[in-house]
Amino acid sequence: MKFVVPAMTAVLACSMPPSASAAQTSDPEQWRTAMQSARWTGPMLASNAETLPQGHFYTEPYFFDVISGGKHNPGSSGFYQYGLFEGLTVGLQPNFGYGTDGPNRGMSVGDVKLLSQLRLTHFTPEHRIPTIAIALQETIPTGKYDQLGPGKQGHGSGSFATEIGVNVQQYFLLNNGRLLRGRINFLQRFPHGADVEDRSVYGSELGFRGHAKPGPRTTLIGAVEYSLTREWVLALDVIGEASGKTKLRGRNGEGTAVSQVFPSSRYVGFAPAVEYNWSDRTGILLGVWVIPKGHNTPASVTPAFAFSRFW
User: Fold this and answer.
1) Which residues of 60-80 are buried (b: 16+ CB within 10 A; e: fewer)?
2) pLDDT in tens, 134-162
3) The domain 22-310: what is its CATH number?
4) 228 φ/ψ sector (left φ>0, alpha ψ -120 to 50, else beta)
5) SS3 assignment, position 304
6) pTM (2 decimals)?
């Protein structure tokens, strides 16, 4: 999930007279008033293009339940970030799975993602250009993915993966005096591959020895948020994702060569959400990520809750 990377700072919105033609105004003071009087948590999936002020922290744990084929797969993720310098934010995104039946009961650690973002441009009331940032991320394979016991599920990929992307964010001041915030994320993932033993998330069985090479993955997210009131925000993400073929090669327990190629996949999903922000530093998000059946992708529904805090 976003987790693709969700929101970072809480700042914004507006409360100007409905008669004001705010969309056409070029008055920086009206923009400044609007941005100082609104609050945001961020949509469910799209990442912020802004960076944190130097020396400040941002935390946003997520709790979710992936429901697919009648089965529940609860888990949690989150973003824990720090403003290292002005214009540069670093952080990490841990992942956890919570088993609910049989041998999979209990909590399992998934892969961890190291995050960094360098801001190139910055939106201000005076210079209303989009905020643009470059994201560089590295997945660390901390989750269990092979040598799985009977009936056990894996929660990792076993593969280091480098991700590079571009995040864009822009604000729009509407005729009714409210703010609309838009985001676009583009992310390209390059897995490095993993050695595999015995039962694994790649479908290998006991006695197998070999190597798996997941295919590259491209993610594109578009999101909008509407500042309904000072505290309440309506949000919607639309996400498209395509993954290349995964290759598995090695030998089974009898020494027979195994060469298997798993087909590519793609899907388009959407995630409506509601945000409530009771201060400039703290907010919550409640949403649902819906993925209709795609190309080699099962349909799923993922309700989620997030709590954000700027320190």
Assistant:
1) bebbbbbbeeeeebbbbbbbe
2) 999 999 999 999 999 888 888 899 999 99
3) 2.40.160.40
4) alpha
5) strand
6) 0.87
Alpha-carbon span 227 to 178, nearest angstrom: 6
At 25, list the tokens: 């105004």
DSSP labels for 130-184?
A: PEEEEEEEEEE--S--BSPPTTPPP---S--EEEEEEEEEEEEE-TTS-EEEEEE
Each domain of the chain, given as residue ranges in start order, spans 22-310
d(CA 133, CA 51): 8
Among all chains, which residue has been given the structure tokens 């056409």?
24
Cα torsion through 142, 205, 194, 110, rounded to 10: -20
Termini Cα distance of the chain: 24
* pLDDT one-digit tens code per residue, 164-219: 999 999 999 988 888 999 999 999 999 999 999 999 999 999 999 999 999 999 99
Q: Confirm if 80 and 52 have CB atoms less than 8 A apart.
A: no
Q: For residue 78, what are the contacts with CB-CB under 8 A and spacing of at least 6? A: 59, 60, 61, 62, 93, 94, 306
Distance, C-alpha 32 to centroid of its chain: 29
